[in-house]
Amino acid sequence: MITPYYLYDTSLFSRTIEAAKAEATTLPGAQIHFAVKSNSNPTLVTIAAKAGLGADCVSGYEIERCISCGIPAEKIMYAGVGKTDREILLALNAGIGCFNVESIPELEVINHLAASCGKVANIAIRVNPNIDAGTHANITTGLDENKFGIPLIQVFDVIHLAHKLKNIRYLGLHFHIGSQVLDMTPYVHLSRYINKLQNMIEAEGITDTVSINVGGGLGVDYVNPEANPIPDFKTYFSAFKDNLNLRPGQELHFELGRALSAQCGRLIARCLYVKQAVGHDIAIIDAGMTELIRPALYQAIHKIINITGRNEQRPLHTYDVVGPICESSDVFATQVRLHEMRRGDEIAILSAGAYGFTMASNYNMRPLPQEIIDN
Fold it and tell me: Of the four, 11, 46, 97, 158, which is 20 to 30 A from 125 by CA?
């Protein structure tokens, strides 16, 4: 097989979905939507569809992918601050379940386009709760300075406007505070925030909130992925079960991406050269930030294994592991202990099933890597 390529373990993906579903049953009315921005591979999306999951989409192209893979349109939630007219019309004509609206201008455009094609758009208001998820700044989404959502000061005006617009049907509230969240405290804070907000909304005479969407963001173990392949869904769902006060009949939606897909994927590469630099050794592999940008973009940690060296029981040595791209940021890890590296060794970068291939690029005119399914 020509490297680099992504290898997906569909069995682990299915087991992870079933583990999440099992824990979600403790919450009446809970529905899980797969955040396909994490991994839009058709085989994985089809598995999610067959498992009964909905989808969290952030582009019209993702909506098309989900529908083609068997996810019912009514189970699709469509978020994003910059929905184009073409994408909105596509979603309206497909009959998606809900638009997560992020601004007043967007709400007005959706209403206008829905009227133009004789549709009524289901919408939820994405609220920015100004809650710190305690994660990397580039994947925090719920603070005042972030571009996402509507601030509390505008929420009541937006809901009242939604009720006035003839081609809009208000369903409820949507939240998303960030990604790779491992401490459940922010979710406790979010639950209590939603409780207070619901009380405030009802005091305004608004009693038709039928849907609460708490987003996703549950993190995974990037340091010891082989020991912890499936996230702690029990603690995650318990944070909402123990703290969120839903009204009778309200639906509760979750949008899980990384938590479902990260550990089922790995990036396979080969060692090109071992370079002796001043004071350290550098292992240069044939995968780079074009295949997996997370370390360069987020300073993300991914466990690296020298598969060949481990199989041959070579001694451990310290390396910087870098890619071939003409950028100083094209570094996967520094001062990492690996089995002795030699030219041609097969290398695995673990926990790469989320935001790996979906963020790949053709920089340096490199082709996109293949995606291989391991059944």
Answer: 46
Q: What is the 3-state secondary structure (H, E, C) of 68-89?
A: HCCCCHHHEEECCCCCCHHHHH
Instruction: Name the region of 121 (left: φ>0; alpha: ψ -120 to 50; beta: rest).
Output: beta
Strand bridging mode 346-349 / 304-306 = antiparallel
Which uninterrupted H or E stretch holds 195? Answer: helix 185-203
> What does each C-alpha distance from 224 to 34, 213, 221, 331, 351 come to in angstroms?
24, 30, 6, 20, 10
CATH code for the structural domain at 10-261: 3.20.20.10
Dihedrals phi, psi of 118, to nearest 5 degrees = 65, 35
The CA distance from 134 to 141, in Å, is: 11
> Which residues have CB under 8 Å from 197's CB, separation 6+?
127, 129, 152, 155, 173
Q: Are 350 and 295 in contact, with CB atoms under 8 Å apart?
A: no
Distance CA 328, CA 31 (A): 43
Instruction: Give the span between the Cα atoms of 352 and 119, in whole angstroms.
Output: 40
Read off the amino acid at residue 341. M
**What is the per-residue pLDDT for 130?**
72
Report the distance separating Cα 69 and Cα 103, nearest Å.
Answer: 30
Average pLDDT over residues 232-244: 97
The CATH topology of domain 263-374 is: Lyase, Ornithine Decarboxylase; Chain A, domain 1 (2.40.37)
Domain ranges for the chain, please list them.
10-261, 263-374
Sign of CA dihedral 129, 86, 361, 76: positive
Residue 137 has pLDDT above 90, yes or no: no
Q: What is the model's pLDDT at position 133?
A: 44
Do 10-261 and 263-374 come out as alike in CATH topology? no
pLDDT tens by residue, 314-344 = 999 999 999 999 999 999 999 999 999 999 9
DSSP alpha helices (H): ranges in 54-151?
60-68, 85-94, 104-116
**Averaged pLDDT, 285-292:** 98
Spell out a b/e string for 219-230, using b for 16 or more CB atoms within 10 Å of the CB, else e: bbbbeebeeebb
For the stretch 83-101, pLDDT in tens is 999 999 999 999 999 999 9
